[in-house]
Amino acid sequence: MSTPEAFDVTVVGGGSAGVAAALAAARQGARTLLIERQQLLGGMGTNAMVHTFCGLFHPDVSRGPQWLNPGIPSEIGMALMQRSGIHKADLMGRVYVLRHRPADLAQLTAELCAEERHLTVLTATEVTALAPGWTITLGDRTIHSRAVIDTTGEALLARLLGDTHWDLAASARLYRPAYVWSFHGLKDELDEPLRLRTAALIVRAVKAGALPAAALGTTLRASPAKGEVFVSTDLEAGGDRWDPTDSDQRLHLESEGRALAHAVWDFLHSSHPSFGSITPPSLPVHAGVRESARWLGDYVLTADDLIRSRRFDDEAALAGWPLEMRETARGPKFRYFDQPEPAGIPSSCLRSSSLPGMFFAGRCLSCDHEALASVRVMGTCLATGQAAGQMATAFRP
Amino acid sequence: MPADITADSVLSLILEHQIIESAEPVTASTDLFALGMDSMAMMQLLLHIEDRFGIAITPGDMTRDHFATASAMAQLLAEKRT
User: Fold this and answer.
1) Number of neighbours of residue A66 by Cβ within 10 angstroms
2) ipTM
3) Nearest CA in chain A to B17
4) Fold designation for A6-170+293-394
5) Peptide bond into A181 cis (omega under 30)
6) Which of A292, A311, A325, B37 might form a disulfide with A344, Cβ 3.0–4.6 angstroms?
7) Residue B18's domain is classified under what CATH number?
8) Residue B18 sits at the chain A interface (C-beta within 8 Å)
9) Helix H or strand E segment including A136
10) Number of domains in chain B
């Protein structure tokens, strides 16, 4: 297949933000290219087996689950509910979340992209160089694009341009990555009593030396599919030396996660009757990195903006998820907004006037470390991605 | 010597080890689940409770009712110590 080498909009990174950006641009008629380094679209929600969509709903839960951002976020949310047979979002503490199956998201995102005649998708493809104007190098191939959107989650394009347009929190503060895997064949329902008993069993096994201490960061969650369970473990990942852009550290993280998955599986399978017939672990393509480099745009969204539900004139999307801070692997710390009202994300967080035609969304939009604890979640990424897709389509040099 | 079991001593253990961090005041009767306590936080809490009070919590003790507030936890621990 020959691919046209000139596009109106090129989106780099096919996760929640990138898929939404590409769909938004292509639906407005822009000749759009979506580039993804893995084989599956869907990003963390497929490749890292993240199985809950956060940030899709209005923070005022007293009104029941209300879609927060119109357009692609609610479209994808509703389509996932239909595919997984879920009729209502789950109330977890003070927020609504939508459980999904990563395989459903992989199939849905592929189908939605395939329906767009203006959209070309390149998977298993890496961007290796970038020059303003914009010229994008994919190994031995060159693409020209009027506008570019970075939805890589790690500000890859900013880093390719040098040292000036991005920021990265200190290693010790970076939100810890999660390693998520799954098994099938649980006979009993994974209700709260079983989840809590299992947590206590894991603590005892760690104290007895039967499981590594890293197992203490483990949470079990029921899939929408009967008998399927997702197991998620936050990992310290090098502690105060953690660098999510370092390939050696990433390799080590993967091997630690994999070994832990097998150890926890072996322990559950052999020590608790409910888990006696579960299948061996199904592993993710890679661990779920929660924080990496962020773009520095015209405005840097702050935690204070979110907590006070600040609104902006140039609003691109709404945030409703609390600040979910995971600077350690010992469990999240939530900081809820002062009022159950959404906060605005201005379009100035998705662009930089020093780089005309460059836009960014999702986990690498322009915000500080604390604000990222809220806006990094997949539902919010869909919303900022959609906005960036529309902004990029409207861009004229 | 294991520490005395009171609702306040359980609450200070929870706050000291940052099991829950909240912008709102946390008291012995605050619902910790409503503040975001999850099974992962409960695992940390279990380790610290066993260290400080010298009481082993069994998987069967690990219920929402026993862990919802610092007072409920203190009651469970007091029952287990006697």
Assistant:
1) 15
2) 0.90
3) A330
4) FAD/NAD(P)-binding domain (3.50.50)
5) no
6) A311
7) 1.10.1200.10
8) yes
9) strand A135-138
10) 1
Question: Given its phi and psi angles, is residue A165 left (phi above 0), alpha (psi -120 to 50 degrees) or beta?
Answer: alpha
Domain contains B43 = yes
Q: Which residues of A touch B18 (CB under 8 A)?
A: 333
Which candidate, A172, A383, A373, A378, places its Cα nearest to that of A291? A373
* Residue B54 within any structural domain of the chain: yes
Are the beta carbons of B39 and A197 separated by less than 8 Å?
A: no
Rounded Cα gap, residues B44 and A199, in angstroms: 10
Alpha helices in chain A (DSSP H): 16-27, 72-84, 102-114, 156-161, 192-207, 247-271, 303-307, 369-375, 378-394
The full set of domain ranges for chain A reads 6-170+293-394, 176-275
Contact yes or no for A218/A264 (Cβ under 8 A): yes
The 3 state secondary structure assigned to A359-376 is: EECHHHCCECHHHHHHHC
User: What are A381-390's pLDDT values in tens digits?
Assistant: 999 999 999 9
Q: What domain range includes position B57?
A: 7-81
End-to-end Cα, chain B, rounded Å = 16
pLDDT digits (tens, 9 = 90+) for A60-115: 999 999 999 999 999 999 999 999 999 999 998 789 999 999 999 999 999 999 99
* B56: in domain: yes
- Between strands A358-360 and A141-150, the pairing is parallel
Please identify which residue in the block is written with the tokens 């879920």. Answer: A86
